[in-house]
Amino acid sequence: MAKADAKKSAAAPMPAERRAALAGQELSTTGVALAVLPPAERISLRAPDASVAALSKALGVTLPRKPKTSAAKAGRTALWLGPDEWLVIDEAKDPLADCAKVTVLHSAVGISHRNVAISVTGPAAAATINSGCPQDLSLDAFPVGAASRTILGKVEIVLLRTAPDAFRVECWRSFSDYVFTFLSEAAGDATA
Description:
Blueprint: H1 2-11, E1 26-29, E2 32-36, E3 41-46, H2 49-59, E4 70-73, E5 76-82, E6 85-90, H3 95-100, E7 107-110, E8 115-121, H4 125-130, E9 147-152, E10 155-163, E11 166-172, H5 176-190
Antiparallel strand pairs: 1-2, 2-8, 3-6, 3-7, 4-5, 5-6, 8-11, 9-10, 10-11
């Protein structure tokens, strides 16, 4: 009997535990602070012009149609990434469920677990990001609400300016340690 019990318990799989990427990491130095933002619901949305109005209504936020723009309403933000492409982020509700109710032509893919968001705030936030991002982050060229798919060092990011001295950096989970480390080192250089 004891042999059978030992064999049975040895074969029982241990449940996998999902750990948050960058859990507990943050940085605060003179002029800039980095923080990992709480998990959010995200979708990658593709749709032709004819579907934009119906999707905007279903999502409760008008999908922006101009390059480098975003729109936000009630905790949901839509970032223009291309002529027929948006990143939709919601802090509480699932935008994928809202898109599922729409019958117009579109593709909505849940990417909530793929991305991690890092906030970069403070007077040296733009200089910190510019250490590895070629985008002009002056307020004239990249005002509050501006959004762009760009690069930081060697990885692709989606960048959103949330305030004059604050940015949201979205990156893939697999690159999040690289991005956070890059920004941490750049913060030291930007404030030196």
